[in-house]
Every structure is written in structure tokens, then in C-alpha cells.
């Protein structure tokens, strides 16, 4: 699959210590396992001149104090609190100054963030989506991208999950409903060095 770098962004979803490091409160070995393939994908995309976006799930400690129904702390316990080590992107996947880092407070990286406007301002059409968790933030971000008329390309070997069946479900759902499932080997950035 050929991608035009000027119109493509790699979206690295929530590759943070809280999810990817063994000391993280929501650590999943499947999240840690995709760090290396994502690093390779980022290097390939960066060399070709594609855009890079990192999402960072961040929660102010009081975020859900007045919640009527939606309360991630009730679902998952306190995690990736604002300003904490858990909220930091893993050291192996550093963002450059030119990359966009999107702080989000829900599963969907488009909800109440600058992401859509930033992508539209740069003429980006295709989103190469990787990161974690497959059936949570990756799935919701990919679905939201499709609803906004971006082409979500879900990179199978660069998406982490708690359980293998979560990974399988999320990618089957994405492929059926709103995006395309690819592997990193399928992706060819035009003009790549």
C-alpha cells in the first residue's frame, strides 16, 4: 500500500508508562511488546517525511468527581494522572519538536482535542494508527477518524492489547465497519529513503 507522506500521519496511541511499563498500574505485556515494531514504523515514516502524532491519555485527579455516569477511575482505577510518570510516553518512542502530542481525557483522541483541526490544516487524509489498547483507545480513535472522513489504517503488528481476543475483535470490527487492517510490512511511503 503506497502512502503519500505529505498527506499521511502516523498516530501513536497512548504508548505511556502506565500501560507499557511493568511498573505501570494498567500494564499489559501486549502493550510493551509493540514498542519495538512501533519504533521501526516511526523511523520509516519520519525518514519519508510523514507526519507524527502521539496521543497521551492524561487524567486530572478530580476529572470524574462530578461524573453522572462516565467514570474511567471506576472502570480502571486511578491511572495516568496528570503530571505523573505513568502519563509520560515511553522513553523508547520519543516525540520530536515537529510532532504533535495530543493530550486527551477519554478513549477518543478526537474528543475535545485539537487533533482534527491540526490534521485538516495540513491536508492529511490517511491515518496510520498504532499503539494501545486495541479494543479501547485505538478502536475509539480509529472509529472517530473514520467518521470524520480520514482513512484509518490499523497496523495489526503495532497494536497492543491485554488479551489476544481483544486484539482480534478490535481489528475485525475496524475492518468491517470503518477502516482497513494492514501490517507494517504492507506500508510503503512514497519517496522513502
TrEMBL record:
Gene3D superfamilies: Isochorismatase-like. InterPro entries: Isochorismatase-like_dom, Isochorismatase-like_hydrls, Isochorismatase-like_sf. The keyword DNA-binding does not apply. One of its GO terms (molecular function) is hydrolase activity. Residues 8-186 form the Isochorismatase-like domain. Keywords: Hydrolase. This is Isochorismatase hydrolase. It comes from Natronorubrum bangense JCM 10635.
Amino acid at each position: 500500500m503506497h502512502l503519500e507522506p505529505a498527506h499521511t500521519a502516523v498516530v501513536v496511541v497512548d504508548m505511556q508508562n502506565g500501560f507499557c511499563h511493568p511498573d505501570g498500574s494498567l500494564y499489559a505485556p501486549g502493550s510493551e511488546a509493540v514498542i519495538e515494531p512501533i519504533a521501526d514504523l516511526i523511523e520509516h515514516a519520519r525518514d519519508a517525511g510523514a507526519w507524527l502524532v502521539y496521543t497521551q491519555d492524561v487524567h486530572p485527579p478530580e476529572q470524574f468527581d462530578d461524573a453522572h455516569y462516565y467514570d474511567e477511575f471506576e472502570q480502571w482505577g486511578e491511572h495516568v494522572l496528570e503530571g505523573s510518570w505513568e502519563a509520560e510516553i515511553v522513553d523508547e518512542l520519543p516525540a520530536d519538536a515537529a510532532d504533535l502530542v495530543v493530550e486527551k481525557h477519554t478513549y477518543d483522541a478526537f474528543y475535545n482535542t485539537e487533533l482534527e483541526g491540526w490534521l485538516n490544516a495540513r491536508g492529511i487524509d490517511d491515518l496510520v494508527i498504532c499503539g494501545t489498547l486495541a479494543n479501547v483507545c485505538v478502536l475509539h480513535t480509529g472509529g472517530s477518524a473514520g467518521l470524520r472522513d480520514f482513512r484509518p489504517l490499523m497496523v495489526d503488528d503495532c497494536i497492543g492489547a491485554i488479551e489476544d481476543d481483544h486484539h482480534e475483535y478490535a481489528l475485525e470490527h475496524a475492518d468491517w465497519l470503518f477502516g482497513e487492517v494492514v501490517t507494517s510490512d504492507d506500508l510503503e511511503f512514497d519517496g522513502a529513503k
